Amino acid sequence: MPVLDLLDLPAACPPDTAWMGLDLGEATIGVAVSDTTRMIASPLELIRKSKFTAEAERLFKLMDARKVSGLVIGLPVNMDGTEGPRAQSCRAFARNLERFRPVNVAFWDERLSTSAVERFLIGELDLSRKRRAGVVDRTAAAWILQGALDRVRVSQSQP
């Protein structure tokens, strides 16, 4: 499985295929998917963590159903830019996926994505804490994926 720089991911993926975004939490995996033009990210599903094999099988099933050609995994970088244990765990997750099948993976700095999503859900949508719990991780995955899609689009439009 090639782990790519985000800006190299488009060349590694067939055109007109979606990308999937992942927000890897301690207890759940937030999943989002793009449209095939890679313009818009949408929250998709929340996978409860159990055994890695079951998580990988569910992810691959979702990827196959939507013809996903690349994964963008949120990388929880520390505020000073260093990588701590959580970032290393995300990198290990990507390496472990390789045991099942090759997939194009890129990482996207997810600093503050969950807190930004929570502020949006509270401020804009006025969701209660109970209702937010089931939405935050999926929405954070969409936030991560949308940021990556926007960055790729900007880089492709620059000379």
Describe this structure in words.
With 159 residues, the chain is an alpha/beta fold. The protein has 6 helices and 6 strands; from the N terminus they run βαβββαβαβααα. Strands 1-6-5-2-3-4 form a 6-stranded mixed sheet, with helices on both faces. Strand 2 and strand 3 (28-34) form a beta hairpin. Helix 4 crosses helix 6. The longest helix is centred in the last third of the chain and has 22 residues, at 136-157.
Outline of the structure:
By secondary structure, this protein is of the alpha/beta class.
What is the topological layout?
Layout: E1 3-4, H1 9-12, E2 18-24, E3 28-34, E4 41-48, H2 52-65, E5 68-75, H3 85-97, E6 104-109, H4 113-123, H5 129-133, H6 136-157
Parallel strand pairs: 1-6, 2-5, 5-6
Antiparallel strand pairs: 2-3, 3-4
Helix pairs in contact: 4-6
Q: How would you classify the helix and strand content by structural class?
A: alpha/beta
CA-atom Rg in angstroms: 15 Å
The overall strand count is 6
Alpha plus pi helix count? 6
Shape: globular
The run of helices and strands is EHEEEHEHEHHH
- Write out the strand line-up for the largest beta sheet, numbering strands in chain order: 1-6-5-2-3-4
Uncertain segments: none
Largest sheet: 6 strands, mixed
In terms of DSSP E residues, the strand content is: 15-25%
- Straight-line distance between termini: 30 Å
Helix content: 40-55%
Mean pLDDT: 86
